[in-house]
Amino acid sequence: MKKIEFTDDFIKHLEWLARIELEDSEKKRLKEELALLLRYIDDVLSIDVEGYSPYIYPKPSMELREDIPVSDEDAYSYLSRLALEEGFVKGPVVIKKK
Amino acid sequence: MRAVDFLLSIKRGEIDDVKLIEGFRERVIAEDEKYNIFITLAEPDESFPRKRLLSGVPIAVKDNIVTKNLRTTCASQVLENFVPSYDATVVERIKSEGGVIVGKTNMDEFAMGALGTTSYFGPTRNPLNPSLSPGGSSSGSAAAVSSGLVPMALGSDTGGSIRLPAAWTGIYGLKPTYGLVSRYGLVSYSDSLDQIGPMASSIFDLELLFGVIMGWDEKDPTTYDKHVPSEVFIKRAFMNPDPHIMSNLRVALLKEPLVHEDADQKVVDRFMDYVSELEAYGALVEEVSIPLVNKAPQIYYVIAFSDASSNLARFSGLLYGKRVVDVIDTDWDEYYMRNRKLFGWEVKRRILLGSFILSAGYYEMYYDRALRARAKLYDELNKVLAKYDVIATPGSNIPPLPLDFDASDLSRLNAIDSLLVIANLAGLPAIVIPLEVSTNTPISIQLISQKWSEDILFEIGKYIALYISKLERELEA
Lengths: 98, 477
Prior knowledge:
Chain A is mostly helical. Chain A has helices at 8-18, 24-41, 75-78; strands at 84-85, 88-89.
């Protein structure tokens, strides 16, 4: 694997992956702390895991309950009025504005 | 006073259950200023069901466990105004047994932190010594119990978040077996590691609260239906322990946390004095070494941060969370990225690192490998537990850190993380039992056992509390 360089482009890529916009001061801080954190987690690479399968959940098989709709008459009272229009939740446009 | 004593007095008709919650608000207002324990207080409510297991007992709940009509913030600006429309299963069970939810406790933002200092609402202080951290992330729940405001509280534990605050504030805390307590209504940080658990000032109260909240829940498919019945724990919460438990006990003393380069020698020496006491009472104690434990925090970081980047993707201001920009002012990408600026720094950097780990080219390198290393650790811990009843470590091998500790000092954090995260990675139950309480150096023991064997942990815990630490007295049942 190529050595990671903490360039401005790399940080911009991370912001996009995480969908978090950072301030300039945060970008600087991230470069410093990422270097430290990546050095730390690199220890994982030295563990001999030969013969072991990935262990994700302590309970691999999950039984889901029946999907029965329930109504909550107060549901709309929990939603912000700003989010609603004629009974629908308003979302932002998904086509990029010019 | 212990909740179990109150409840026995109520049963005998000596006191009224309403007395338990009387004066609670006044006490909170006085104490909260000192320690910053609660984010939201519930309105006084005396309409709880009478003559139940927890009738009238005031209980504090960590603010990442949802409560119907009671604000749940996860100590984040993102959820500053979030009022849930339903109760978590554990809250439902407490309420149906008459327990009174008195408020939502401060914590590290989205349970990310070890010191209780990443909260948007400011840090919680340690009731044993307000200049020190109470430990995180269940900092407020620990402080609520340690300060005597409530006898019991709920916390959550992803990598030690119940047990470290318990160790640093001199109380009891249990991280249950993964799948033994419902996570329905717990705001996920790392869903394969998160567990809700009880915290209490008495081991008897700890067992009682555990008995009430535990057990299969159809709303959480990761819970199991085969386990020791809750009635067993509830009954034993009102009983003194088996007097012969120590003479048959086999204890594996884990070497790595004792010889860690950042372990505090004074803490380790004092802890070893108590280990000698266990032997004096008849336990067989033998040292075991699992070198992989030293790398457990790194395995944990990879898995937990990756999970966090996925679990927290829902907070964009659309369905959940506060908005910086409104939907009509922008497009989806900008809307999403700008609203998420409201996360605090610790949360941001964990999501950023987690997103990186899961990205093309690095998934196999880090994430897949960490999951395999997790399997190896599980295997090695279970080999030890096939020979011994419990694995013992200090609850913390360093004293509580100051509130202004620089959290980028990964070496000090590795010392405590390594003994705590192993139980989460393997899904095993782990209990922290205080041994001595002091303003600067509280000493405690952590015991880890096989899955579904919380009953053993409680029996040993009660024995230690009564006869070794002598922090408790026998029940007059």
